[in-house]
Amino acid sequence: MREQFTPERFWAGLDRTSECWLWTGPVRGNVGRTWDGERRWQVHILAWSLAKGPVPAGSNVLQHCGNRLCCNPAHLYLGKLVKPYSKPEHFWSRLDKSGECWVWTGGKTNSRDGYGGLKFRGENWESHRLAYTLAIGPIPDDLCVLHRCDNPPCCRPDHLFLGDRAANNEDKTQKGRVPRGEHHVHARLNPDKVRCIRQRYAAGGCTLDDLAREYGVSGVSIHQIIHRKRWIWVA
What we know:
The protein is an alpha+beta fold. It has three domains: 7-80, no CATH class; 88-174, Homing Intron 3 (I-Ppo) Encoded Endonuclease, Chain A (Alpha-Beta Complex); 188-226, no CATH class. The chain is 29% helix and 17% strand. It is built from eight helices and eleven strands. It has helices at 7-12, 43-52, 88-92, 127-135, 165-174, 191-203, 208-215, 219-226, and strands at 27-28, 31-35, 40-42, 59-63, 76-80, 95-96, 103-104, 117-120, 123-126, 144-147, 160-163. The strands form five sheets. Strands 1-2-3 form a three-stranded antiparallel β-sheet. A two-stranded antiparallel sheet has the order 4-5. Strands 6-7 form a two-stranded antiparallel sheet. A hairpin with a 2-residue loop joins β8 (117-120) and β9.
């Protein structure tokens, strides 16, 4: 039986272990969904409505953090409600071309790394991938679209190039865009806690499961930390 909706249950059901308050319930189309007993909601819009009041007509609720599962009211803001894009000129008109990069000014994906996101002719796109497709041609299934400028929302075609997933991962690592350690969105540990875990296990008197329960992570994670397969940069 479905539990009766209350604002308290909604807020309590969010994962608030990081700056983003993440929805942990049903997701469709990269957006959290829920039912309040009267209507179906996108959860970030419900969060805005509960915290700040009704969404004005012609407006949409967006996230500063770019994470579409985030419901932290401090991360939410109002933007213009835009109809689905159906023509290339609609897409190109949403780019800020005042600088060297052509920057997407619409909504973002849920990846937290700044990539633009939109619906074009009924399909979900990352803005730089759509720019490449419209200007240059189809993207092979096994290739990614990379940025020479290292600016995720940039959609200028001559700043974009193709590479396989290995090249994409190497490119992100070299440019420092792979979050690790305490900077990861779901991180529950930090270097000091990692050192303490290793020291306490080496001293004896506690098991992997004991440490896992205390620090709120899995036993596998504790095992990998102790054997330096995770957090390997922490001395």
